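User: Please predict the structure of the protein below. I'd like the answer in structure-token form so I can feed it into my own downstream comparison script.

Assistant: Understood. Taking the following sequence of 128 residues as input:
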Amino acid sequence: QVQLVESGGGSVQAGGSLRLSCTPSGYTINNAFYSMAWFRQAPGREREGLAAVDLVDWQTLYADSVKDRFIISRHNTNVILYLEMSNLKPDDTAMYYCAAAQSRLIRTGIRPSDYKYWGQGTQVTVSS
């Protein structure tokens, strides 16, 4: 059974940094998933796509709201996916989710409805 487990969330002050991790099990990134992405959802708001990666050619796509501040990356030797976040702002406060799909999706954007597998989320809180 496929599982995605996020970790690395926490509370930071504005301007700080965090690195989120997403560890899949049941599949390996290189063999079964073709796309992975990070999303977030704040209370009362829709789930927002932040960053996505094509696991075949490692093309990446970022939302304008996080471009130049967030970087999607992976561990060199295993299947962990990261979201490195810097210059965090109070508006970045949300639950952050990792998602995966067995299709190549990056050319269609970062849409929650395209992703089949989801983690439970990790909370990020940024104080001013």
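That's the full token string. Helices lie at 29-32.
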